[in-house]
Amino acid sequence: MYLKKNNPHASSASEHRLLDYPINASLILRKKHSIKRALLGNEDLISKNIAILGGSTTSEVRNILELFLLNIGIRPEFYESEYNRYYEDAVFENKKLREFKPDIIYIHTTNKNITSYPIISDSMAEVDLIFQHEVEKYRNIWSSLTNYHCAIIQNNFEFLQHRVLGNLDGYDHRGALNYIHRLNTHFADEARNRANLYLNDINYLAAALGLAHWFDKHLWYSCKYAVSFEAIPHLAKNLSAIIGGLFGKSKKCMILDLDYTCWGGSIGDIGLNGIIIGKETAEAEAYTEFQRYVKSLKERGIMLAVCSKNEQNYAKQGFTHPDSVLMNDDFVAFEANWDPKHINVLKIGAELNVGLDSFVFIDDNPAERQIVSENLSEVSVPDVGVDVIHFIDHIDRNYYFETVSISNDDIKRADFYKKNAERLNSSLQFVDYANYLQSLLMVADIQPFSSIYIDRITQLINKTNQFNLTTKRYTLADIELIVQSSAYIALYGRLEDRYGDNGLVSVIIGKIQGHECHIELWLMSCRVIKRTMEQAMFDALVSRCQAMGIEAIIGYYYKTDKNTMVAELYKDLGFDRVSSNNMDTVWCLQVNRYTNKNYHIKEKK
How far from 278 is each of 179, 260, 264, 314, 390, CA to CA, in Å? Predict the structure, then answer.
């Protein structure tokens, strides 16, 4: 049920590993054609149109970006502006770009594209005027590109390799570094306030790689590449992570080994007091720092699980150590036994009801990593090595948990899944499942899309795969257009019960065509499956269709490896199948024939 055919991991493990941290830029550039061939063997790719508007030469950026996108399951088609024509392509009417219909527009500018810098004789007022002219240029670009109704990814600026004013350059108003810092701060403010604008933080990338490695003077003067060949794979990986975040390719859960991963030593052999954690030694500090990093991921919404070859009682004792940062309550699933680890990972997937491609598996033992990787190709298994000092780098620089927004539902995700465990325990007390559903005292809030929830709606759309009838993906800009359009019925659903709030868990988008409503998208979070929320959502859709004089609802099911659970949903709701193409089907329901199906959920009015 969880295994996936033709996964890029399975197509060529060695080629795939070349794109993992630590990046060997020269090897990637040398083997780019063979890497591409291997990754194109994946049949489960989604196609996206990506426009690159460059302030410098971008052909190799495009080539390497394609590899990293294929690696995360995205097949890109590219539009590439002519050299340094990014402003003209963005601001003026561009028939070719409009016909291209971009899903993403990437503006590849660097400090080489800053129009002018302050000079030593400039007053503060003159520096401010230069600054305003520069930011106005980019405001014009971003505002013009909103007409394409797609996500815009903008580089910020990397620091220069030299400082005319020395250390003063960073804080004097005439300093070039101070000026770049002001521009980057302004770009960050704009990205927070513009729904379709995202920043590619090349300032961080250049600092992490080193300015001397980021920029190659010979390459700039000979070919006008503003980024060195060594830096291009790092740029492309970071950029692909943002694009992956926009289209739901990020991971949801980290599965951790315990001994020599979360602490030093084997707790079953040396006992609780013998494990290495805390601040007494360098090794203890390293494990403590790793636990802090993991805890921070949990606090921003990443689920944590344990998969350890250990006795359950010893395993759980480890998190009662007075110096442990992580506690047992931080984990949504805990498998500690002597079964093969890939079997326990499958158990965790079944318990949480999430796909294996949501998991990152961290284990210091190379044999265990290999077992999980070979048996469960969808699980991401970084080669973290055996030294805890390097674990964070492998997780952080592989961008597994890249996100373009953080919602309240994200932060509460671990609690949602813990409450699900309580619901499961409660269900065991009932012989009749209907009586169990009634005991939950469920209340749904089903409403038209609201600007308050646009981020969460977009995120849910791009991350949900199992209960998803068409798996169509939308950007934030797409959802904003739908909110403003009278041609759509767009509903979200929140669900509460006696155990707490499940958050926003379901979305339906129906397009009105004459007297018909065509369901372009219908999905639901896996954490509320089998609680009849789909019936409550559809009752609400029918009610709105009746109020609008809609006579028929047309439903579409497009089969994927993961959504077979909803193949018969329309049939169960009383639709007639009107056509089929292989496993894809089209269904029709006459609205006046429908009777409500929801009996267990009360809808808020």
Answer: 42, 14, 10, 19, 18
Name the token pair of 403.
């996100």
Nearest to 518 by CA among 485, 484, 561, 551: 551
Q: What is the pTM of this model?
A: 0.87
**Residue 509: alpha-carbon gap to chain centroid:** 21
Helices assigned H by DSSP within 18-115: 25-30, 32-39, 59-71, 86-91, 95-100
Per-10-residue mean pLDDT for the chain, 605 residues long? 38 74 95 94 90 98 98 96 96 96 97 96 94 97 95 97 96 96 98 94 98 97 98 98 93 97 96 95 98 96 96 94 97 96 95 91 97 95 97 97 85 76 78 90 95 90 91 88 94 94 95 97 92 96 96 95 92 95 93 94 88
The single-letter DSSP state of residue 308 is E
Between the alpha carbon of residue 484 and those of residues 196, 246, 391, 516, the distances in Å are 15, 21, 45, 20
Amino acid at 334: F
Task: Identify the bridge partners of residue 104 per DSSP, sorted by sequence position.
Answer: 50, 151
Q: Could you identify the residue written with the tokens 């890249």?
A: 402
Pick the closest to residue 492 from 456, 517, 530 (CA basis): 456
Q: HSE-up of 380 (CA within 13 Å, CB side)?
A: 23
Rounded to 5 degrees, what are φ and ψ at 76?
Answer: -90, 145
Q: Cα dist. 275→266, 337, 529 in Å?
A: 7, 19, 40
Is-contact 554 587, C-beta < 8 A?
yes
For 247-300, give the DSSP string: TT-S--EEEE--BTTTBBS-HHHH-GGGSB-SSSSHHHHHHHHHHHHHHHHHHT
Chain-centroid distance of CA 17 in Å reads 20
Q: Residues 490, 483: contact at Cβ < 8 Å?
A: yes
Q: Nearest Cα to 364, choosing from 380, 387, 381, 344?
A: 387
- Output the DSSP codes for 491-557: EEEEEEETTEEEEEEEEEEEEEETTEEEEEEEEE-GGGTTTTHHHHHHHHHHHHHHHTT--EEEEEE
CA angle at 533 for the pair 529 and 537, rounded to the nearest 5°: 135
> CA distances (Å), 257 to each of 294, 301, 309, 315, 458, in order?
12, 20, 8, 10, 33
